[in-house]
Design a protein that fits this description.
Shape: globular
Radius of gyration: 21 Å
Largest sheet: 9 strands, mixed
Low-confidence stretches: 23-32
Strand content: 25-35%
Order of helices and strands: HHHEEEEEHEEHHEEEEHEHHEE
Number of strands: 14
Number of domains: 2
Length: 287
């Protein structure tokens, strides 16, 4: 069984389900809300937004996904033979995305030290396109959902890795320190104090601007209440999808005035002097 982003978008638009899974929030309210959004996204790709039976959902997940992640390692999920998906839940429509110790990714590589062994070995792969999925949630209500491919959004990995390298090299110039660069973090300094009992972990806390700000000139529909969905991908990615899925969305565009597909120009994340041809989809519900 195969699923793609185009199928997920069609499932979301044609569904009446606009709520993420309700859960007992407790002390870890933010974590639970993030998990609820991840479940909504899994259901969108698996075609189970309306399903209530847990076994049915589990079977569909197994058929669709090769990997379902954890809170400590990207990505949150990977499609069999398809894209990786990273889900970010926010409560303010323009808040920056917290990526923590994982720098932004234009693509996901199997040799990345930031991914788990389970992710690396779940299928045979070297590199995957990655979709940043950003949801604005109020309570259990999904208000805005962005799907943006990493190569539209972030620079190549060398840009971020040179920062990590520069920090590591700089720290090593400090005299009389025991620095450990063999870590998933930026580094670690051992035995900081005379007794040798204190270590310093050096962690990166990466943030990236919300797609609402990065692509604020793209949405064209009147600002109004109701659910909104946006999707951005390079034109060559759109061309790579199967014709049946593309045609289904084009038919949906003729049937629903709230949905549109258009070709746009965006800045190249590696060189803003260059423009890239991209496909931008937007949907405004009539609710």
């Amino acid at each position: 069984m195969v699923s793609t982003l185009l199928i997920a978008i069609q499932n979301i638009i044609t569904s009446t389900q606009r709520q993420t899974q309700k859960q007992a929030l407790g002390k870890n309210r933010a974590n639970h809300m993030g998990t609820a959004l991840e479940t909504y996204i899994k259901d969108a790709f698996a075609g189970t937004l309306q399903a209530e039976d847990v076994n049915t959902k589990t079977e569909r997940y197994t058929a669709i996904f090769s990997y379902l992640g954890n809170a400590n390692n990207p990505p949150d999920m990977m499609l069999h033979g398809g894209d990786a998906i990273e889900v970010k839940k926010i409560e303010s429509k323009n808040s920056a995305l917290a990526l923590n110790s994982s720098y932004p990714k234009s693509k996901l590589y199997a040799d990345s030290p930031m991914i788990s062994k389970a992710c690396r070995t779940c299928e045979t792969w070297d590199v995957k396109d990655i979709i940043y999925t950003v949801g604005t949630v109020e309570g259990a209500d999904l208000k805005t959902l962005w799907f943006v491919y990493g190569n539209c959004y972030t620079a190549d990995k060398e840009i971020y890795e040179k920062i990590k390298t520069a920090i590591s090299v700089g720290i090593q110039t400090i005299p009389d320190i025991d620095f450990d660069a063999k870590t998933k973090e930026l580094g670690k300094v051992h035995k900081v104090d005379p007794l040798g009992i204190t270590d310093l972990r050096i962690r990166g806390m990466w943030h990236i601007a919300h797609p609402n700000k990065v692509y604020e000139t793209l949405p064209s529909h009147p600002k109004k209440e109701g659910f909104k969905l946006f999707c951005l991908m390079q034109k060559e990615k759109w061309d790579s999808f199967d014709e049946a899925s593309k045609q289904a969305l084009k038919i949906l565009e003729t049937q629903d005035k709230g949905f549109s597909i258009r070709v746009v120009k965006i800045k190249n994340p590696n060189n803003p002097a260059q423009l890239l041809e991209a496909v931008f989809m937007e949907y405004y519900s009539h609710e």
